[in-house]
Amino acid sequence: MDGVYVGKAAVDAAGDGGWLLGHFKPEDDIRHSDEVEIKWGMHPRGDRRAQWATGEKRTALLVLISGRFRMEFPEGDVVLAEQGDYVVWARGVDHSWYAEEESVVMTVRWPSIPGYKVPEA
């Protein structure tokens, strides 16, 4: 079917650091977008972001699919504990995260900014 892509999030995410949609997909791929990025994140218990994201240039939404996931912000933490719990943070809000239990989360960020990536520690 032209203009249709069917995939499996866990399988497709493994090939691109978890990202399913965004500027980093080839321009001729239906999953290419300059407006939005979508990530399927699978995190083992105890997994922690390598370093805090600072000077964020995108707005983001993170939704808990399963597990228990802690989002860390300078003014306090948010624990997502029930399926469907979510948090949204604005551009410029520093953040990090920690998987309190094995967790699956979906992250949506906008816009999709080429070349923007927080370096690994």
Runs in which pLDDT lies below 50 for 5 or more consecutive residues are none
CATH fold description? Jelly Rolls
Distance between the termini: 42 Å
The helix-strand sequence is: HEEEEEEEE
What portion of residues is helical?
A: under 10%
CATH H level, superfamily name:
Jelly Rolls
Largest sheet composition = 5 strands, antiparallel
**Level-1 CATH class name:** Mainly Beta
Widest β-sheet, arrangement of strands: 1-2-8-3-6
CATH architecture descriptor text: Sandwich
Strand-pairing-aware structural class:
mainly beta
Proportion of residues in extended strands: 35-45%
Q: Tell me, briefly, the overall form.
A: globular
> What count of structural domains?
1
Number of helices: 1
* Spatial extent as radius of gyration: 14 Å
What can you see in these coordinates?
InterPro entries: RmlC-like_jellyroll, RmlC_Cupin_sf. The structure is a single chain. The chain is mainly beta. It has a single domain, classed as Jelly Rolls (Sandwich). The strands form two sheets. The chain has a five-stranded antiparallel sheet. Strands 5-4-7 form a three-stranded antiparallel sheet, with no helix packed on it. It is globular.
Features:
121 residues, mainly beta, Jelly Rolls, five-stranded antiparallel β-sheet, three-stranded antiparallel β-sheet, 1 helix, 5% helix, 36% strand
List the helices and strands and how they pair.
Layout: H1 9-14, E1 19-21, E2 37-43, E3 59-66, E4 69-73, E5 76-80, E6 86-89, E7 96-99, E8 103-110
Antiparallel strand pairs: 1-2, 2-8, 3-6, 3-8, 4-5, 4-7
